[in-house]
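Please fill in the sequence for the structure shown.

STRUCTURE ENCODING:
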């Protein structure tokens, strides 16, 4: 009997004939990081429609959890269906109009990325640069604000390319004295380092789901202050990107007290996982989580010193180290690529390398969420020691 199937131009790929299997890896780099089993289980729950009442209820619970994590009462607190880069783009594109001035603090990769985005949206960008590993001072910020009278000042709380912590207290009132908004990137810090959105008068803050919140990547929580919303409502033209327009997206999330409207088909599976991650996060309490991250980071610092392998911290001032992520200088005698290769190949442990201006210069060790505990710190110290002392050569792979 002949084969009546239509001949296809492209055959079914042989690579898809078997079920997917993946090894377990300890993700100890700059993110994403491992998730709690409860979070992973939530991702296997039934898929719901994007306007189903159960979906709306989950979104409301996520919003409450994010208000807790951000420490804000902002009604416009929601989750973007995108990675952290989308949070950066949404922050800038909603606030900035063509011709506006934006002062962007640059002390690593992410300030440059924000400057690129702001320029694409027609803003005139002024870079406020500091040496790698050092934050912006209030004095330097005030000088830039007084001189340029910008629409916004952009700061990164944790510059993940260096692991430097940017102090935020005092910058909000300073910006507001000069008629500017304060936009903060908290992708690598929220949940692991103190952040008070309302208390510190931060206007727009965004993060990523895949770091200290311990949810899968693909979501960007964000919050807009009433002051930021006044600016957005006063725009001469709508936000240039429909997908990021918070005035439209906010109705999907019920931020304005109006009926819910369709905006896009949300990634409900990611929402379910984030909801569970936030539930775990809230059950511990925010202050306890901050303390746990600080304790784990100090244990890592002490352990690196005890190893005696010439390892030193990239950020020299203890006040400016982020507890979620630690940058370690690569000793001159060590090949960083071989160390990272050995850690993942022999131990199944990912340790991050440098990024952007620090590529090849540092190791980056993440202690996000579930990894901020003594056992995990001791484990990564053992792996780092072995990978430096007994690296795997390329020829043995």
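FILLED IN BY: designer on duty
SEQUENCE:
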């Amino acid at each position: 009997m002949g084969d009546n199937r239509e001949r296809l131009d492209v055959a079914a790929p042989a690579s898809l004939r078997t079920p997917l299997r993946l090894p377990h890896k300890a993700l100890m780099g700059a993110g994403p990081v491992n998730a709690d089993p409860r979070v992973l289980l939530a991702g296997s729950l039934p898929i719901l429609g994007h306007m189903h009442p159960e979906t709306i209820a989950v979104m409301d619970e996520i919003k409450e959890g994010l208000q807790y994590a951000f420490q804000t009462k902002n009604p416009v607190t929601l989750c973007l269906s995108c990675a952290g880069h989308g949070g950066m783009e949404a922050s800038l594109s909603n606030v900035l109009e063509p011709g506006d001035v934006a002062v962007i603090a640059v002390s690593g990769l992410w300030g440059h990325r924000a400057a690129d985005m702001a320029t694409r949206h027609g803003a005139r960008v002024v870079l406020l640069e500091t040496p790698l590993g050092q934050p912006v001072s209030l004095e330097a910020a005030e000088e830039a604000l007084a001189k340029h009278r910008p629409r916004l000042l952009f700061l990164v709380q944790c510059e993940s390319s260096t692991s430097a912590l940017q102090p935020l207290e005092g910058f909000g009132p300073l910006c507001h004295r000069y008629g500017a908004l304060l936009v903060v990137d908290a992708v690598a810090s929220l949940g692991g380092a103190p952040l008070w959105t309302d208390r510190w008068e931060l206007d727009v803050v965004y993060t990523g789901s895949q770091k200290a919140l311990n949810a899968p990547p693909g979501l960007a929580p964000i919050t807009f202050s009433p002051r930021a919303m006044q600016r957005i409502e006063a725009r001469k033209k709508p936000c240039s990107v429909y997908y990021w327009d918070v005035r439209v997206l906010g109705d999907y999330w019920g931020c304005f007290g109006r009926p819910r409207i369709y905006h896009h088909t949300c990634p409900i599976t990611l929402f379910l996982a984030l909801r569970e991650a936030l539930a775990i996060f809230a059950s511990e309490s925010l202050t306890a989580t901050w303390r746990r991250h600080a304790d784990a980071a100090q244990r890592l610092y002490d352990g690196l010193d005890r190893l005696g392998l010439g390892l030193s911290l990239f950020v020299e001032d203890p006040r400016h180290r982020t507890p979620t992520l630690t940058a370690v200088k690569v000793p001159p005698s060590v090949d960083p690529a071989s160390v990272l290769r050995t850690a993942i190949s022999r131990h199944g442990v990912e340790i991050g390398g440098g990024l952007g201006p620090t590529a090849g210069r540092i190791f980056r060790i993440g202690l996000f969420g579930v990894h901020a505990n003594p056992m995990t710190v001791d484990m990564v110290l053992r792996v780092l020691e072995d990978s430096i002392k007994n690296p795997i050569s390329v020829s043995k792979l």
